[in-house]
Structures
1.
Amino acid sequence: MNNLNKKLYLWILIIFSIAVYLIIATFFPVSENNTLFEYLKFIPIIVTLDSLLIFLFVKYFWKFKYFYNKLVPFPDLNGTWKGKIKSTWIDTDTGKNLDPIPVILTIKQSFISISCVMRTAEMTSHSFSSDFIIKNEEQILKLVYSYDSNPKETIKERSARHFGTISFNIIINNKKIELDGEYWTARKTTGNVELEFWKKGLISKYPNDAI
């Protein structure tokens, strides 16, 4: 992730370490010898507690809503999302746009990475590069990723494998999050995708009840 405030995390870790040292020194004061070893003997304990704090924050705490916009610049998007794809492609036979296509998006996110898999009844696409674009002063909060789309074998004659990019605006209203995006592909097709959160789990197959 390119939007993490590493200086802030470093300062928090330094302050935490100093606080731990002072607490330990209060309950376990150094001897009257005041040797260098006496002052350094608490360092292994502090390093252990620092490591534990980092582990817990990176693994669990970053997801807490309280930390969003304070310590964490992006929301937790983990789970399965569902919605519609609206393509701008026009059928040359009918002269009309395609009907909206039901779609699901599964997002696997950690504190330092994020991956996306989009599925319809006919194709599956996997992200190979993804990140947030966050510019608070310009009120911009986006999830952008590039993907490799693989249609099912039965339709590859009319829809070949292709690459593309999708940019989602992350819309947060009253604790409800929606993803409103637009995509463009190497086939020179474009369109919009509108998604809402569906469930926490990640599914590995397009479900019949996703419509």
2.
Amino acid sequence: MFPVPLTVTMTGVTKSQLAGWRRAPVVLAPEHGTRPRALYSFQDLVALRTFARLRSKVSLQKIRKALSTLDMLELTEHPSKYTLVAHGESIALVDNDEAIDLVEAPTTRVMVEMVDVFNSFINRNEVAVVDFKHPRPQLEVNLNRLGGWPTIKGTRVPYDAIVDLVADGDVSYDEVAEYYPSVTPDAVADAVAFAQLIEDAA
């Protein structure tokens, strides 16, 4: 489960957008509730990141209309299951080699340029959103490793375990290898920098 600050950092959706969407689930309510605090699933992060990328190109009304069209077409799985891309002033659903418009001319086939929602992008607020699979060069996200929690590249070591280890200054970046032999000082620096991004989002 992903808390709000990590969700904000990984998706490009703002804290206030998440709060608003929790009160009135306009786009997506957290899969794991809101009490005592909101926790988002890995699927939620993928969907929210898609919405943030779309929101940098089209209005929230158009995103809602696209989701409504998906419902009308009886495509009711979690939004992360669908590939949605901005198509001019509209949104298209990409399925295999076809794309259909969901907003301007629902169900009309269209040609779209595919973008990888996991790549870094600039959100609506002109803020750079981290690369989803590699939020820092020495960190990676893999759904099959710790449920998608960010880890040190090539390991199962959670980034926050490293941050906690060096937090009080008793263990230097170089000494981390005594506890985790596969974790380099560069990886420690990336974990700490990523933790700072998350703290800034809190």
